[in-house]
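Subgroup meeting minutes
Present: P.N., E.W., G.H.
Scribe: E.W.

1. P.N. recapped why we're keeping a running log of single-chain structure predictions: easier to compare across weeks, and new members can see raw inputs and outputs side by side.
2. G.H. added today's entry (249 aa).
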Amino acid sequence: MDGEYKVERVKSGIPGLDELVDGGFPKNTTILVTGSTGTGKTTFGAQFIYKGAAEYGEPGVFVTLEERAQDLRRETKTFGWDFKKYEEEGLIAIIDGVSSTVGLPSEEKFVLEDRLNVENFLRYIYRVVKTINAKRLVIDSVPSIAFRLKEEAQIREVLLKLNTILLEMGVTSILTTEAPDPKAGKISRYGIEEYISRGLILLDFRERDVELKRYLLIRKMRETKHSMRKYPFEITNKGIVVYPSGEMY
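Output recorded in log:
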């Protein structure tokens, strides 16, 4: 049909996921990936960045605020992902946001010196995104940005500003956050992250046959038809795999 609006899609790089979101994430959108500890949020973000570079030729920036860049590289090698290779090719940039905070020197190319100043934090990320012409961005994690802010109004202001700047950057972004109690409906640390994001994916556990099983639920995804069912996924030796035909409940 002439004049029909067509949403551009960005492949997630996660087998089984794109078919649940109408072929991929809407381009230039912000997606919140939330879940309790150990559900695979960092792996999800790393896979999005790595596969973007390795399979789709799309540069990406990974902002690590919870572990050192060298630890991220080492851990993801277990999936066969060679981040260093694509960093050297200019397709991936890892921003070390940990070392300066804990008072350690860093030999990384991209180091966030003052993440406690939100303006400087956002300005630096913007500069790195433009340096490699990034199409993808991951910030891991939101609580690590706001951990020094005590008032809810301050946190709300920072997160709104973050979302606005992400949209201006023209990147497809993933933010990770903690879900304090998903079963009670508490799916983000501050209760505002899910409202500023245009997409929301929950990763969680369910006990089945005396064993914890992982599942994924797409709670929200604007500009996209998507399932509202819970689907099993695994973290395999090649990364996250979602099983669309394996509906759990």
